Amino acid sequence: MNITEKILSNAYGKEVSPGEIIEVDIDLCMSHDGTSPPAIKTFEKIADRVWDNKKIAIVFDHAIPANTIGSAEFQKVAREFAKKQNLTNLYSHGEGICHQVLPEKGLVEPGKIIVGADSHTCTYGAFGAFSTGMGATDIAMVYATGKTWFMVPEAFKIEITGKLNGITTSKDIILNIIGDIGSDGATYKSAEFCGDTVDNMDVSSRMTICNMAIEMGAKNGIMEPNKTTLEYLSNRTGKKINSFNIFKSDKDSVYEKEFVFDVSELEPQIACPSDVDNVKPLSNVLGTHIDQGFIGSCTNGRIEDLKQAALILDGNKVHDDVRLVISPASAEIYKIAIEKGYIQTFIDSGAIVCNPGCGPCLGGHMGVLSAGEVSISTTNRNFKGRMGDPESEVYLSNAYVVASSAISGYIEDPENISQSLNKY
Ligand SMILES: CC(C)[C@H](C(=O)O)[C@@H](O)C(=O)O
Ligand code: SF4
């Protein structure tokens, strides 16, 4: 059995196989300021009390602080619900983006079943959990019963091998994979990432890869937790590593398809407008004009990403015709970035630093694009109109490339900009 089948078998209480429909207990259910209100509306038609006030997390991140009367109303509904149901995990004070906040607060553990009313809930696969996004009405049923059903997915084994060089990051790996497999190439599959590159990766890079599993249609993204990940989780949860339920794929487990990606020669990858699988090497798009850069999101708003941006921006100025918007993925990351001097560097360079949250990622808040404008962004989606007007365009890349491009005013090779890569 592979890791996903093992986690689902454990939750179901007997061995499962792909295609089977099972009902399981949920360990953690997440919704945010955008999706809690519709879930609450449905919930209130079917139940009075939630199944477990400690297993529901609500995070305000999509528009925080509220940007419209509508979002203020939504947040009021979610706040009142959390109070009435005595939820112990309400994060409504700008703690950060849900997918960053949940692991930080120690709510994620290997082997758990986690669902969320947000498509990037697949992020927690980086910690060896089965986690997936669901619609708000399905989440309402989980609020009420603590259960949901899944069809056990077939699995793709995606082996990643080789050592990344220089300015190539895990974002480039996942863009390369999605470019190859296609944005619907893994629909309802379990995308299992393995190989020496994944085994040696830090937590942040692993999260970036699992976060984007949904961008090829996957039901979940998953990795066996490595030592670094287990240490991180032990710190966050206050539990000993040997108390975790760690599952690993059997050597002879069966996959529907197997892929091998050697990343040792990989150059930074760019997803071009307006599909996430329209991926080209950086060298093919150099010189493309941009109006805005964004560094942040649940994909690449962590301290490692901010460090990459600071290394590039240090001593440089954002181009006069460009806005560079930077939003740390959580308040905790924001504080570390202040301590390390990154925020000072950003402000000195002329970047706009926003509070933690989704920000411009989905085109609703703090950096909306007008018709004809072009953005380069560390986020995960570049659909038509994703960051504003339907006639605007979005390129996706890593933080080195966004920062470099913001300085030049066109898509730029970071090697042409960086002068002091060892400063921090
Ligand atoms: C608003 C929310 C439902 C949506 C999602 O599910 O992914 C958003 O987070 C996104 O990234 O598009
Ligand atoms: S940062 Fe972007 S992708 Fe992530 S949850 Fe928020 S809107 Fe969705």
Write up this protein.
- The protein has 424 residues and is of the alpha/beta class.
- It folds into two domains: 247 residues, Aconitase, domain 3 (2-Layer Sandwich), CATH 3.30.499.10; 146 residues, Aconitase, domain 3 (2-Layer Sandwich).
- The chain contains 15 helices and 18 strands.
- A five-stranded parallel beta sheet has the order 4-3-2-5-6, sandwiched between helices.
- Helix 2 links the parallel strand 2 and strand 3.
- Helix 6 runs parallel beside helix 8, helix 12 packs across helix 14 and helix 12 packs parallel to helix 15.
- The termini are far apart.
- The chain binds 3-isopropylmalic acid (IPM) and iron/sulfur cluster.
- Iron/sulfur cluster binds next to helix 11.
Task: Tag the structure with descriptive keywords.
five-stranded parallel β-sheet; binds iron/sulfur cluster; 3-isopropylmalate dehydratase large subunit; Aconitase, domain 3; alpha/beta; globular; Acnase/IPM_dHydase_lsu_aba_1/3; leucine biosynthesis; 32% helix; 424 residues; metal-binding; EC 4.2.1.33
Quick synopsis:
It contains 15 helices and 18 strands. It is of the alpha/beta class.
Topology (elements, then pairings):
Blueprint: H1 3-12, E1 21-25, E2 28-32, H2 36-46, E3 56-59, H3 69-84, E4 89-91, H4 98-104, E5 113-116, E6 130-133, H5 136-145, E7 147-151, E8 155-161, H6 170-181, E9 190-194, H7 196-199, H8 203-211, E10 220-222, H9 227-237, E11 257-262, E12 269-271, E13 279-281, H10 282-285, E14 292-295, H11 297-300, H12 303-313, E15 323-326, H13 331-339, H14 342-349, E16 352-353, E17 374-377, E18 393-396, H15 399-408
Parallel strand pairs: 2-3, 2-5, 3-4, 5-6, 8-9, 8-11, 9-10, 14-15, 14-17, 15-16, 17-18
Antiparallel strand pairs: 1-7, 12-13
Helix pairs in contact: 2-5, 6-8, 12-14, 12-15
The protein binds 3-isopropylmalic acid and iron/sulfur cluster.
